[in-house]
Amino acid sequence: MRPGTFSKLAILGTLLLVLAVVPLVLPSPFHLRVATLVWINATAALGLALLIGLAGQVSLGHAGFMGIGAYATALGPKHLGLDPLSSMALGIFAAALLALLVGRPILRLKGHYLAVATLGLGILVHLVIVSEVPVTGGPDGIQLPHVELLGRRVTGPELWYWITGTGVVLAAWLALNLEDSSTGRALRALHDSEIAASVVGVDVARHKLVVFVIAAVYAALAGGLFALFNRFVTPDVAGFLRSIELVTMVVIGGMGSILGAVVGAALLTVLPQALTVFHEYEHAVLGLLIVLFMVFLRQGIVPGLAGRVVRRRSA
Amino acid sequence: MAEFVQLLFAGLTTGAVYALVALGFTLIFQASEVVNFAQGEFVMLGGMVTVFAYNAGVPLPLAALLAVVVAAATGTLLHSLAIAPAKGATVVTLIIVTIGASILIRGLAQIIFDKQFHALPAFSGDEPLRVFGAAILPQSLWVLGGSGTIVLGLWLFMERTLLGKAVRATAANRLAAELVGIDTRLVLTLAFAVSAAIGAVGGILVTPITLTSYAVGTLLALKGFAAAMLGGIGNPVGAVVGGLVLGLLEAFAAGWISSTYKDGVAFLVILLVLFALPQGLLGRAAVGRV
Amino acid sequence: MSLLEARGLSIAFGGVRALEQVGFTVDRGEVLAIIGPNGAGKTTLFNVVTGLYRAHGGEVRLDGRDVTGLPPHALAARGLARTFQNLEIFFRMSALENVMVGRHLKERRRLGAELLGLPSVLRENRESRARSRDLLAFVGLEERADEPATGLPYGALKRLEIARALACEPRILMLDEPAAGCNPVETEEIDRLIAAIARQGVAVVLVEHDMRLVMRISDRVLVLDQGRRLAEGTPSQVRSDPRVIDAYLGRHGVAAAHAA
């Protein structure tokens, strides 16, 4: 087991516990809707946690993949007569394909060059969604039909809560398994030293590509789930600010921590809802909180607090 | 010919603003290795403060001066309240800090000012000049001349003054600079203040043409970043070249291809350039030392 | 046919010729030391042979096959492992995990199975962990296996790199200053390790400044100076070669060599 992290079972157990308790404590449809958004964002953040936290590769354009997932899910029924679920599958496939194609040249870049390239990729996806009005509906967004499964309509905040909640637990389980595997070790190794990883036989470029595609799939899945649940998507889902929110979730929660990604997603999803009481101060407060968190809890919430608990125990 | 000249001037004018933003990025990056995504907010502050001071009856030159001072003060605060305390954090964390700061500045601007678009009167009239059949706004010349003056001034400052040399020494090797007695904290603060002032001047010069609002900073920061990276980060000449190239590409793409995708040009170009030259146009290839 | 053969390797950085027509051969169980003053091109030679730098001229052959210009991971797959002069440790990992990464090529990776955490993956993890513990024991670090690598002292990290390289089960092990910064006791420890590794049939190429160590354990010594080959031979031949004494060893070095 890695030092400073919880065991796989403890993390999954915590998630399941939270998943079970939330509807008991906060049963109103509004709260369940917010919780559903938390699960959806957490799914995307988990993928990014693997990319940034585990492998050390920044992406400032990950909402682009989320947008591809969301818009594929919305456009399939509208233009191709597909049902929303198969459209979502196609969207995830498309996101994976795009990641596979651009991943190799992009991931050769390091540090700020990687940041600007991924930023550019995300902005281009967003721009296409905004500009191709006849296809995507442009800035006004696009409506989706209800999902039907076995002839029954999938609807209601509670049902979606359980669907997305199960999704995030599965996503976390897969991510934890990956961490504790040969590929996971190779990714953590190349985070620290690409040179040392390569001389023990790690194909650095290939492994970066693998984790980039996985992160894209997670984001596209999250985008698709969002479209199905919300039944309405706007280009914001793929925007620069969304990309930044995703990265902030990972960083605030604690880079390299699976539980941290979920905590970060919860914080950045719930916070803006809570901040609406500040009306026009909303953005200023959000910006201030981000700066404060980064300055005073630099390791992120989960590793930061875990570190404090450990120190207190040993003291 | 007329169309070409028209697009050329349009491109150079926007390019000059990108160049100033990119120059601000470069200055801060050189001194502190921080990529400051709040750079665009200085441009916004330059425009907005001037507009509001001018509308309150302050004469334009004084309003502009006030805006530069406000931006420089904001830059100094940004450094001492957010960047300096986060010293030693990872690249990603620092990126998030500066983006958080930019959201904060934008949020405050929205409260202090408003959410509307605002204009300034052109500095020397709106009567277009005729050049090869193209209509050139006199304000474009102000933007080009002003930006050129700043670039020249910054170069002289860096090359000729003791303080400028201290900045360069800090950029080259912070520890060594401290050992020879340079107050690197002062140098860093100065870099943030000067970057902010440069951005603000850009914002003031361009507002009569493009208008301004509390939200103009984001896209400018992203394009300025792209311009800085295009030239190869940390290279001031590269920043100016990168900015002008991006401005020209945007103008000609909008004029000759499609104006819908104008905002995408910068990012498409940066992707293609980085695929071919992973260190930017003027960046040096680093040989990994082990 | 030698196990590893480098021929006529040349490389220049910004006009400075770092290597000019340098070559060497090494075979199973043999220990070849590469010595020379600072800037002689020893580490550069390592970097070219292990695929980190691309040579401007010359070739590298493994088992008689041309492997010039192959990337490091492909060379590792053919049995070439190395350590670094300035330590390239995975600092976010424990000592044990560092060595486990060295098992990379011996592990079967199927992404699907890894994501699902199938029993086959868990079995593989257990096996890698056990092998890596053995290797840590071999280099004398079994007590510190689960400590984060950041907490280990310099000498321990040097040995950790050796364990990690051995985890690749290499046929050729290239050690870049394994004893640098080590005290005499630690140096002796590394001395024993290298001898034991060579006894197992691994070809060892090492760069080292500690002349006593070099003279004691090397079968052959290659002397570089300013990117060129100055001399090559058995330790005693090199020790008495006047060119080597002139250019490199100097009085102090000769005394040290004879004391060994």
Description:
The complex is a heterotrimer of chains A (315), B (290) and C (260). Chain A is built from 14 helices and 4 strands. Chain A is mainly alpha-helical. Chain A has one domain (8-239). In chain A, the strands form 2 sheets. Chain A has a two-stranded antiparallel ribbon. Chain B is mainly α and 290 residues long. Chain B has a single domain, classed as ABC transporter involved in vitamin B12 uptake, BtuC (Orthogonal Bundle), CATH 1.10.3470. Chain B has helices spanning 2-32, 39-55, 60-83, 91-112, 138-160, 162-172, 174-179, 184-210, 217-231, 236-256, 262-276, and strands spanning 129-131, 134-136. In chain B, a hairpin with a 2-residue loop joins β1 and β2 (134-136). The mean pLDDT of chain C is 90. Chain C is of the alpha/beta class. At the A-B interface, α4, α5, α11 and α13 of A face α4, α9 and α11 of B.
Give a concise summary.
Chain B is mostly helical and 290 residues long.
The largest sheet of chain A is: 2 strands, antiparallel
Structural domains of chain A: how many: 1
String of helices and strands of chain A: HHHHHHEEEHHHHEHHHH
- Runs of chain A with pLDDT <50, length 5+? 1-5
Here the CATH topology of chain B equals ABC transporter involved in vitamin B12 uptake, BtuC
Query: Largest sheet of chain A, order of strands side by side?
Result: 1-4
List keywords for this structure.
heterotrimer, A: 315 residues, mainly alpha, two-stranded antiparallel ribbon, 76% helix, disordered N terminus, C: 260 residues, alpha/beta, Rossmann fold, six-stranded mixed β-sheet, four-stranded antiparallel β-sheet, 10 helices, 10 strands, 23% strand
Fold blueprint:
The complex is a heterotrimer of chains A (315), B (290) and C (260).
Chain A: H1 8-25, H2 29-54, H3 63-80, H4 84-107, H5 111-131, H6 133-136, E1 142-143, E2 147-149, E3 152-154, H7 157-179, H8 182-192, H9 194-199, H10 204-230, E4 232-233, H11 240-253, H12 258-275, H13 282-296, H14 301-314
Helix pairs in contact in A: 1-7, 2-7, 2-10, 2-11, 2-12, 3-4, 3-5, 3-10, 4-10, 8-10, 11-12
Chain B: H1 2-32, H2 39-55, H3 60-83, H4 91-112, E1 129-131, E2 134-136, H5 138-160, H6 162-172, H7 174-179, H8 184-210, H9 217-231, H10 236-256, H11 262-276
Antiparallel strand pairs in B: 1-2
Chain C: E1 4-13, E2 16-26, E3 31-35, H1 42-49, E4 57-62, E5 65-66, H2 72-77, E6 80-82, H3 95-102, H4 111-116, H5 119-138, H6 154-167, E7 172-176, H7 184-199, E8 203-207, H8 211-217, E9 220-225, E10 228-233, H9 235-240, H10 242-259
Parallel strand pairs in C: 3-8, 3-9, 6-7, 7-8
Antiparallel strand pairs in C: 1-2, 1-4, 4-5, 9-10
Helix pairs in contact in C: 3-5, 3-6, 5-6
